[in-house]
Amino acid sequence: MTDLNGKTAIVTGSTSGIGLGLARGFASAGANVVLNGFGDAAEIEAARRELDALGAGRVIYDGADMTKPDQIEAMVNSAVAEFGAVDIVVNNAGVQTVSPIEEFPKDRWDMIIDINMNSAFHVVRAAVPGMKARGWGRILNIASAHGLVASPFKSAYVTAKHGVVGLTKTVALEVAENGITCNAICPGYVLTPLVEKQIPDTAKARGMTEDEVKRDVLLAAQWTKKFVTVEQLAGVALFLCSDVAENITGVALPVDGGWTAA
Ligand code: NAD
Q: What's the burial of 166, exposed, middle or buried (CB within 10 Å: 0-12/13-18/19+)?
């Protein structure tokens, strides 16, 4: 198992779903972890305590809003102040809206681009100087199978995720000689609140029942006929942070049950 003792990881959007699973993986591997995201304060504190008890590192919470560049920069700076460095960043915060393009709410377009794409730029921009100074870093962008292929009614999401894959490749080249890797993980469907919330909208948009959406829309593309799990994604993230992965960079790695192979 990857040993992250002495390392510090920021995971954006880690109060729920995939981010929380990744944060749990990093905490178990010994890293200090900065949790981030929205939600009920008592639930967030309970998650923070649970993760804090898992490994040698400490786990703190920062409520920075990923639509606010100054708050993102402050989150990176306060992590450095707290732990001395930021070695790993995981750009995971994300939201979704399912709507035909001609009815797509303009404010949701802007929000999705801000949270799912622009926040990754601001996190990386703030974290790279410290990584360069120490000659080691791992940047993980949680894109999506929708960073590689499209589905109808998800124009903002697909646009943002394709953008994140472009950012991943560009940053990988820029920092390649500094001991820093930058990779995107492209999951297929994971049963998290983000996916569960879009099932009713997809059912409405396609005139289907919710069970039909799960079987005929979500898992239709996943050849394994299984949802991806957060534990599997945490395992992939830890692998990409390990020393044997130092020559894996600029990759958009599908973890999608064969979806994008077809
Ligand atoms: P989720 O809804 O369970 O979690 C999203 C997280 O982002 C939460 O912690 C939420 O508080 C946080 N967040 C939302 N807006 C924020 C903001 N303005 N500032 C800070 N944090 C904010 O979703 P999830 O399914 O765990 O998704 C996590 C990431 O994985 C997203 O980028 C998503 O696009 C990607 N992804 C998910 C799936 C899937 O099937 N669930 C598949 C591929 C990619």
A: middle
